[in-house]
Structures
1.
Amino acid sequence: MEKTKVGIVGMGTVGRGVARLLLNFGDRTARHAGRILWLERAVVRDLSKPRPDVDLPDNVLSADLDEILEDQGIVAVAQLIGGLEPARTIMLRLLESGKNVVTANKALLAEHGPELFDRARELGRSIAFEAAVAGGIPIVTNISQCLSANQINSIAGILNGTSNFILSEMEESGASYSDAVAKAQELGYAEADPSMDVDGSDAAQKLAILAHLAFGVRVPWREIPLRGISSVNPADLRYAEKLGYRIRLLAVAQAVTDGVELHVSPTLVPIGTPLAEVRGAYNAVRVHGDAVGSVFYHGLGAGQMPTASAVVADLIDTVVGRLPITFRTLKLWSDDYAVVSPKDPGMIPGRFYMRFDVDDRPGVLAQITAILGRYQISIAAVIQHPEETTEKELSATALTASETEDVGNGHKLIVPLVIMTHETTEKSTRDAVSEIARLDCVHGECTRMRVGN
Ligand code: NAP
Ligand code: HSE
């Protein structure tokens, strides 16, 4: 059977998975590609690093990128190093040496997409990036090809496996936030800098890519309003459950009359709905199109083999010539796409969850509800269960231990107060909360989260 030579740059979690699929399941890739995808070279930074989960033939591993650049027989390269540099320079050099590139690096595309895609088109090369969004879920192909007869109205997704894993661990096994982060790193889900996972940046980069494909606009990802999961307290997970919800980091893009509204934020999702039941490193994306209606995708969004699955599929599409056609037709990130700033989500209607740490004395609730009333915010539910909140959780909001001590009859001086609103706006809750925070009876930061459907 004919052989087509391919290369890999970066043999970390994903790169090793790609090598395993190419080497161990060559018959499978050959069946789909009609030829053998031959792993000719895998370039790393540090040759001495152990890579026990992959058994590479002699002479495949190298620390010299030129061995790929100068080999005219290598037609497609999986570029699997993270971050912006040297990833950007390496991608440009690969394209300039005649290679088609496959990547999982969404940070690179969200930041330098226009430059890289323009250069690829000038050179008649392609960049494939199925693995850059939602790992093993084929969402890029689905939105850009399978749903192309639709006007997409909205996308709502759990797009970061690490933060979903952390929330699930805290919810299901009571793990601490820091233990859950460490476990996600150990399992290879987290970025080299996990703050991108937990602060919502990674999800915002993926959302910008999906919005580009779905709405035909270029969104500067840094302008997407985002909030991460680091402020989610175990007590919030428990209160949410009592109210019938789970907390998920949702990335939402919605077409509105004069633009696109986008945001990434921890959101209360009703228990029993598909997004609420997404656990561990799984991702999910709900897309609504005018012809197809609502479509739901679910699968592992991070981890070695799910991500490698998407990379190898892109390599196959590249070598058989399926991908370059779509790439040229779509003209991704070209000037054909208007640059839009996300609309301020302040006026988007929704319900909200709020938690305040307040003095446990008569009149406090009345002061707070009076302020909410002035902002036309109507209350759907109130919870105050001091016995269920640990001192550590309260002190996380900057209280001293003595303030949280039991002062007799099971009463503490400061207790959490949870309020769920009826429909209002982000702006009304933001303004009301900043006024409430100035009351003497309210301590520390208020937690405020959207409630989804
Ligand atoms: P990783 O485990 O940190 O691996 C990165 C690899 O890049 C390492 O093998 C490193 O080499 C190599 N590298 C760095 N600089 C290099 C250079 N100058 N020349 C050659 N090699 C270089 O990262 P990963 O988790 O595999 O992620 C790779 C990309 O996939 C990232 O963009 C990430 O966002 C994306 N992604 C990851 C996942 C996931 O679940 N992990 C899922 C989807 C997308 P050494 O080994 O020699 O240090
Ligand atoms: N760090 C990313 C995540 C990898 O956890 O989702 C997949 O892009």
2.
Amino acid sequence: MAKMIINGQKVNAVQGGLLDVVSPIDGKVFTEIPRGQREDVDLAVKAARQSLSSDWGNFDPLGRSRLMLELGVAILENLDELADLEMKDTGKPLATARADITVLARYFEYYGGAADKVLGQVIPYLNDYSVQVIREPLGVTAHIIPWNYPAQMFGRSVAPSLAMGNACVVKPAEDACLSIVRVAELALEVGFPAGALNVVTGLGEEAGASLAEHPDINFISFTGSNQVGVFIQQAAAKHAVKCVLELGGKSAHVVFEDAKFGPAIAAIVKGIVHNTGQTCTAGSRLLLQASIYDEFMQELGKEFSKTRAGTPEMDLTCGPVINKNQFDRVNGYIEKGIAQNLKVVAQGQIADGVPADGYFVTPTLFSAPDHTSELLTEEIFGPVLVAVPFKDEEEAIALANATDYGLLGAVWTENGGRQMRMAKGIQAGQVYINGFGAGGGIELPFGGVKRSGHGREKGLVALEEMSTTKTIVLFHGK
Ligand code: NAI
Ligand code: MG
């Protein structure tokens, strides 16, 4: 059974509560985790604060860099075990789980390598002054992690923070936290001092809310639903701390008549079915130029119908969705689409032999006559793609922007001018041209506009988000 990591110790919750962890593969309880509450969060925040004025705070950038790189190595050395935990927790195909753990290691390599390369500035000012701007950590950073990519999201949120010398308190999702707990243990094993990295498991409304509302944190990073994101921002506002919010999307592929069909179709299918559609950047809308609509949908449908949902060991296109709530939610959208007379163009299959009580859903490709259905504006978070036709560039931009979200977009066209006009016209934090990198490389600045949230993660810009400047002004006379 997993334990929490607080102040360098593996501990149970103070009150001793436990939560069942249910496997999405068969709907059965397979382990328990501590049910952390307010007092556990408080201990973790105290430990983090304490570490900043002792061991962890005394590390210089090179020391932080070396430890982070060592953790990257330890993650790769334990890849089999970590991928196995991730697979059991989420039901992902084994290949996907292994790829995710490799990305987790990459976060520690990338930000570990950057920890000692964050430069300050010298600013030309009046002749009798010298001015320098240095970067400082924010202090205690809180990280509330979702269940869709536990390991990757942990790396994305925590690695840049540690690189900048902050101390972290992490609240992983109650549905999937085992890989995160194990990585925090590995961090202790490679020499991270007590309190630098704490993990409090538990429910969102208990441990999560207590962490977000804690008066002694200096920053919150949150990825998850819009509803909880708004709560997080309100909690942050009470203590005037900054938050970075990534609240999902309704990202569109925009395919013009001059696009190369083959690569577009491969990317579109993968972009919605990978991770069972439980990806913030899933390409969940398809805007297709009317002149190629029927022909393209026919070819897309052929590929889409080859998708298979199965157990991790079957290693098919995708696994189950995470829990009963999501299972009901995704199936509810599919039923709503059918009730609204959207045309089912193609469906994948749930593989034979999956456990009857697993949360497997049928990948579904819909065609809609116009952009009015809520299947085209709301985040479904499942393998459900809805296509809709457009006439020209102007309408394509209008439809691409016709949701509250703004996380990502993709444009498929060989026309160079159109590529850039579309890239500039689409309201999103990332736009791909003739490709689709759901989530993208970790080197690429990432985040939303509109209701997809604010702040940027990944790339070097994350180091700025997770630190602050201090301007030191020296008067020395002429
Ligand atoms: P959620 O937003 O409730 O959960 C995400 C994280 O927030 C978890 O760690 C959870 O424990 C925590 N949390 C929940 N309530 C909290 C609170 N009051 N205070 C602090 N932390 C809290 O997401 P949920 O309900 O599991 O999924 C619902 C929908 O949210 C999904 O269908 C999807 O649309 C969206 N979502 C988006 C994600 C993304 O990557 N952008 C990830 C997960 C969910
Ligand atoms: Mg929720």
